[in-house]
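User: Wall-associated receptor kinase-like 1, Gossypium hirsutum:
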Amino acid sequence: MLKQKYFKRNGGLLLQQHLSSNEGNVEKIKLFTSKEMEKATDHYNENRILGQGGQGTVYKGMLIDGSIVAIKKSKMVEGKKFDEKKVEQFINEVIILSQINHRNVVKLLGCCLEAEVPLLVYEFIPNGTLYDLIHNQNEELPLTWEMRLRIAIEIANALFYLHSAASAPIYHRDIKSNNILLDDKYRAKVSDFGTSRSVALEQTHLTTRVQGTFGYMDPEYFRTNQFTEKSDVYSFGVVLIELLTGQKPISANQSEQVRSLVSYFLHSMQENSLFSILNPMVVKDGPEQEIMVVALLAKRCLNLNGKKRPTMKQVVMELELIKASGGTVIEDCGDEESETDDMIHSWDTNPSSSMSRRIPTDSVTFPLNSSS
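Assistant: Predicted structure for Wall-associated receptor kinase-like 1:
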């Protein structure tokens, strides 16, 4: 009776209802028992914890067949109150992931609804997050230019797949380096679909309460409450400049001012001083022309006007083209085509020009309580 009570409270009926209305997906979602989950995690042993966050705790587990999995134990109780909104988010993640099958999206194997709090069972991704790889660099695994470009292409491919899903496009709504996992070959896997949404084919946007992560969030969405596919493009642009610079999206200095990486990056582009803010490994390892063309693409992804940002399809095509051509060719640059040509020409004729070497006179900062 208790298991039945938990099953209902954890959204089991809601899930059954969704799955029965979309029968093609039913067999993809395995329902695990609470005993299987306890055994897999050694009764939720602290030594098995892979990570903890706002949505819950993730454990490393082993199923009866010997396969290694990641088990996400959702955080459903705030104080003594059960949070029904979080159940909705949890079921939403199950439904969204049941529709997705892509090599660069983390695979959901099943869930357990008969435990006190619901659990999600994913494929185990062994090499942590892209955030850790960028910001906690170790000498044993240098993050080369080639790796950075490949990872950017893999994330872009996943987002293009989500946005162009035939049945109903999916907006991720929380793209950030912490939500990009890396497998045994350091291939990118987009994860964390708790706030993602499917949209009808004819829909151009979602009007929702603002959710997301400060530093990655589309300012247009923040202003209008309307989330479009171009909002994911903006967040991807932030991840792209994180890969280029090795810097965090938001960083505080000693005077409690906060520096926005986006503002700092756009300022450096405007001042022709991009190479002074790049990660040293990028400068040492990457061909200048490729770096510049990727930076120009990132700049377009970060346009304040969502309509002027490229689609994820265009982003994928351009990144693939950069990889194949060494940055010498760029297509579909829209309003900035002439700017791209001018910049590339200036460096072809004078590679030590001010564009690549001038140091910015000041960094762009804004106070913590700023509305900008």
